[in-house]
# Entry
Amino acid sequence: MHRWLLFVDESGNLDEARELAVVAGVLVRLDGDPAWFEQQVRAAIEWAYPGVAYPPHATVLNKTTGLVASTYRRHLRDPSAGAPRPALRAAWDALCAAAPELPAAARVVAATRKHQEPRDWADLEECDRYLKRHHGGAYEGALGLAQQGGAGMARALARLPTCAAADSNKPRPAAFVVAAAARDVDDAFDLGATGDRTVTDRYLSLLGAMLERTMLLLRAEPPAHHEVRLAVATRHVPRPGLPATPLTASDVGEVVGRVIGYPFLPAEGLGDARLRFHCDATPKYDARVHPGVVLADFVANRLRRILGQAIGSTPYSRVAENASRDISLPVEQAAAALQDAGPLPTLAADGQPRAAIRAHLEAEADAAPLPARPRWARDEASAWIGAL
# Structure
């Protein structure tokens, strides 16, 4: 039995119909003790962002002001944690001094003093511009620390196989990224009637696409068995006729139930129970969240940046190269049942590319052609169709 942990989070405003969104998972095969694994990953994250309130939030820490605010949020709550570094202290003092005349700074400072994250990303941008224009030394120093933090998170991801190992003398277990992305609400393959309710949230469609890719990667011939335990960061999802409410383990279970019907090869599908998914929790992103979810938050954010910068002609190979540089985990992996095919894309595009793979497996003669753009999406689907 191979035991896997899959930590999941998302990046992008999924409520905006025309905004790029990513649901990303960090998939780790666990050979050792789960508690020791959690402890080691938490330590690696705290090493990356010393003095920052846990959990670090990638969207906030993308901005220099976000690092300043996150550091002071912890310092004001617990001064014994140590004094902020000089560049951060200088930037904080500058924001406090500017607050009476700069509403964005006033809101950031007020939220931080209440031990809260800044609510408006635009405020962080405006404060960054102010610091860069009027306090260049403090800004550059804090920016350097923010960049060091991102590099530290990439190192934490690179260490996952070591943290998951049962014995340092044995080969390291696998760790890689699985993810799904869509630039448009029209690319949500699963929107519409599914089972006994209507899926109206493209997050759930992206989650399904990511789990389909996970299944394609892990599905194996006998006697291999895989058990995947999911920790999916909660978010609000719509309910038919009701207000949006937090995602639950039952919601994730419904997505898993739909994905299990995926037309796998060999033809007997999942009836032999060689691949099982269990959703243990849909945790809030707060001080109790598993550090694996924090890494998933970082990965989702970085992948969204990489895909957002990709132009229509950017091949998957370039996306994979940039991901390897920024997150230190592969987005290509050999599928258990398709070893002769070599490494295959672990990043899936929702919508037409996803539909094309499914149509190929179902041997549909009238399957829609793959879209020409974006090229990375065409490339990843073509690779899987060729392998299957």
In short: Confidence is low (pLDDT under 50) at residues 192-199, 265-272. The chain is about 45% helix and 15% strand. Residues 136-158 form the longest helix (23 residues). Residues 2-30+173-387 form one domain.
